[in-house]
Amino acid sequence: MAVTLDALPRLKSALGRVRPVDPGWRHRAEVKLANLTKPPNSLGRLEWIAARLCAIQETLSPRAAPRWIVVFAADHGVTAEGVSAYPSAVTAQMVGNFLRGGAAINALARAATADVWVVDVGVAGDVGVAGDIDVTGSASAGSDASFRSRRIRPGTRNIAEGPAMSNDELAAAISAGFEMADAAATEGVAVLACGDMGIGNTTAASAITAALARASAVEVTGRGTGIDEPAFRRKIDVVTRALRVNRPGREPLEVLRTVGGLEIAAIVGAYLGAAEHRMAIVGDGFIAGAAALVAAEMCPSFLDYWFAGHQSCEPGHAVQLRVLRQQPLLQLEMRLGEGTGAALAMHLLSAAAAVINDMATFDSAGVSRRRDITEPEAAEA
Amino acid sequence: MAVTLDALPRLKSALGRVRPVDPGWRHRAEVKLANLTKPPNSLGRLEWIAARLCAIQETLSPRAAPRWIVVFAADHGVTAEGVSAYPSAVTAQMVGNFLRGGAAINALARAATADVWVVDVGVAGDVGVAGDIDVTGSASAGSDASFRSRRIRPGTRNIAEGPAMSNDELAAAISAGFEMADAAATEGVAVLACGDMGIGNTTAASAITAALARASAVEVTGRGTGIDEPAFRRKIDVVTRALRVNRPGREPLEVLRTVGGLEIAAIVGAYLGAAEHRMAIVGDGFIAGAAALVAAEMCPSFLDYWFAGHQSCEPGHAVQLRVLRQQPLLQLEMRLGEGTGAALAMHLLSAAAAVINDMATFDSAGVSRRRDITEPEAAEA
Question: CA A365 to CA B103: how far, in whole Å?
C-alpha cells in the first residue's frame, strides 16, 4: 500500500505550515535597495537574493549566518547492478573523511564559515566514528564536523528489483531530516543547505527525476562519478527497469519510497522543516535537486525559501531546474554533491545581505541621485 | 605624435618581464587534484582555478590572500555630451562614500575580506577626504578604505572633440597603476583586483572596445548606469564621433590615450604590474575589461594571471570576453563596476585554494579509488 500523509504526522503538519512569503516584504526590500548608493538594479541577482532574504525573514536587515550544511549519507542497493565507478564501501569511508575534515565539503564549508553536520541515515558499512568526534549532537568549534547516527537500514534495497524502502523506513528517513531542521532552528540557523553522500545515488535521483519531470531515463541519466560507456548504458537500463518494476506513478512520496534513497528522503524532510522554520535554503546539485523536486511537488511554497545554488553537469539537474523554473546562481561545471555547490553559493547570500545591511543611502552619503536627462549636461571645466 | 613605449620605461620593462606561466606547474597541480578524495574533475572550474593559482605562484599550496581591491577614480569630459544618468559630481561624492565605507564595494570587500584602496587619478571635484581617513598609504584595520591622491588632471578632455589626454598624462596614469601594484607586492598581496569610479566611463570603455575588438559602436555601447532612450542614442553617436575624431587606430596605447580614461589607464598599469609580480588578478566588469583588452593586446601573457571574474550586462563586456577568449566565473546580471564583480569572484579563488590545500588524498583518508568497472559489483547485503 502506498504511503499516506496520515502515517507521517510531522510532514503533514509542516505542509500546512510552510507559508508563501509575503510579497510586501520583497517590495519594501526593493524600495530600500533603490535608495542605496548605486544605480537602480545594478547589482542584478544580488539584489534579487537580498529581497528574497528579506521576505523569508520578514525584515529589512536580513542575516545570512549562522549556516549549516547537513550531509545525509546512505547506501544504495542498486550498486549491485554496476552503476557506479566506486565501490559502496566508499560511502562509509567518505563519512569518516567528513568527520576528520578531509573532504571537499569540509574545505568549502570552512571557506564559507558554515558548520558541517553528517547524518548517517543508511550507510551499509562501518563509518568508524573515532573518539574525537562529537557525537552528542552539539556543534563544537574544534571539530570539523558533527555527527548523528540515525541509520534506518544498511542501504536501500535494489530499486531495479523492487521498492527502495518500506513505508516505515521512508517515514523514519524523512523524520531524520526534520530532526536536523529543528536542531538548526534551535541554534538560530539562518541559512541551511543539505548535501549527500551515497555511492549509487545518482541512479536513484535519475529515477525520481524521470518520474516527477515526466522525462525519459535517457534525458535524466548522466555519468555520475564518471562511469565508462558500458556502465553508462547499463545505468540507463537500470533507471528504466526501476521505473518499470516499481511503477511509482507521480505521487511524490511514493516515487521517493520506491525509487529514491534514504538520504534523499532525509533531505526532503530537512528542506520542508527548514521552510517551516523560515530559513533560507540553498540547493546543491542533482541529488539534493531530486529532493527539491519532491518537496516542491508536495508544497509549492517551499520554493519561496529555496535558492538554486548551482547547476551541476549531470544532465538531469538541468531538467530539475527547468521543472522548478529556477535559474542557478552558479554554473561551475561541478558534479560532486556533498553540499559543495551550496557552500559556494552561500557566499552570494552573505554578499547580498552585506549590500542591503551595510550600504549607505543617497541621502546619508550625500550622493546626487540620477536625473532624467533630456538635455546634455552643461559643459564642464 | 602617438605615444611610444620609450616614453614609458616602467611599462616597457614590465612588458619584458611578464612571463607566461609554466604549464608544468599546472600539470603538477592537476596530478595533486586527481589524488584528492573526490571523483576526478568533479569540482569543475574550481579545480581549473586551483591549477591556475598554482601555476601563477609556482607552488602546489597556493594562497588566495591577502587581497586588495584598488578602485581608481577619475572624471570624463565626455559627460558634457549628456551620456550618463548621473552628474559628474557623483564621481567625487562616491569617492567620499568609498572612504566612509558606504558603497557597494565596501560591503562586498568586507564580505570577501579584501582591503579597499581608492586612488584619485583624475576626479574633477572635491573628494572631501576627512581627517579620519588614512591618507598615508598604509592600510589600517580600522578604516574602511585607504586613499591615495594621484590626481593627474580634473578629468579627461571630451573624447567626442579630441584626445582624452596627452602623452604625459597617459604615462602618469599608467604609473599610478604600477605604483599600486608595487605597493601590493610589498605587502605580499596574492590576489589583486581593480575597480573603477568615473561618471561617463562606460562611454570611454565602449570606444576602447570598439577600436580594439574591431566592433561597431552599436555592438559595444550599453545603457551604463541606466540612461533613457534619447541618451542611449546620443551615447552611440558620441562613441562613433570619438572614434571618427580621434582615429585611434589599433595601437593599444594610442587607443587608451585618445578615447580612454585616466582610471582605465591606471588599471592597465596595475594589471601589468600585478602580472609582473606574479599575482592572481581578478577581472571586474566593462571598464576594467577595457583595461584588460589593452593589457592583453600589449602582452598576451598577461592573461595567464587574469581571471574573468564575472560578466556584466553591458553588451560590450561580452565582446571583450569573446576577444579575450575567457569564460566568466560568475554571471549575475550586475553592471556596477567599482570592483564589485571581482569581489564576489574572489570567494571562488579562496574556495579553490582551500580545496587543493586542505583536502585529504585517497591514501591519507583510506578511501577506495575508482575502478574501471566492466562487470557489475557482486551483490551486496
Answer: 9
Which DSSP category does A5 fall into?
G
The residue of chain A with its CA nearest to that of B378 is A80
Position of cell 572633440? B161
CB contact under 8 A, B355 and A107: yes
Q: Are strands A115-122 and B306-307 parallel, antiparallel or unpaired?
A: unpaired
Q: How far apart are CA A138 and CA A94, in angstroms?
A: 21
Q: Which residues of A touch B225 (CB under 8 A)?
A: 39, 42, 370
Catalytic residue ranges of A: 338
Query: Are B93 and A365 a contacting pair at CB < 8 A?
Result: yes
Residue of B nearest to A37 (CA): B103
Q: Which of B221, B208, B195 is nearest to B83 (CA)?
A: B221
Mean pLDDT of B235-253: 97
pLDDT confidence of residue B4: 86
Q: Which residues are CB-contacts of B36 (< 8 A; sequence separation ≥ 6)?
A: A104, B355, B356, B359, B360, B361, B362
Sorting pLDDT into bands at 50, 70 and 90, what band is A2? confident
Average pLDDT of the segment spanning A31-36: 98
Q: Return the axis-axis angle of helices A286-298 and A262-276, rounded to nearest 10°.
A: 50
B31 C-beta neighbours (distance < 10 Å), count: 10
Note the ipTM here.
0.94
| A91 vs A198: CA distance, rounded Å | 5
Across the range A318-324, mean pLDDT stands at 98
Residues A116-148 pLDDT 10s:
999 999 999 998 774 445 444 444 444 589 999
pTM: 0.94
Average pLDDT over residues B18-26: 98
Determine the 3-state secondary structure of B326 from DSSP: coil
Nearest-Cα distance to chain B for A359, in Å, is 5
Residues A215 and A209: beta-carbon distance below 8 Å:
yes
What share of chain B has pLDDT > 90, as a percent? Answer: 88
Instruction: Read off the DSSP letter of residue B134.
Output: -
Q: Is A93 helix (H, G, I), strand (E, B) or coil?
A: helix
pLDDT at A141: 40
**Chain A residues whose beta carbon lies within 8 Å of the beta carbon of residue B377:** 79-80, 82, 84, 87-88
- CB-CB under 8 Å, B365 with A96: yes
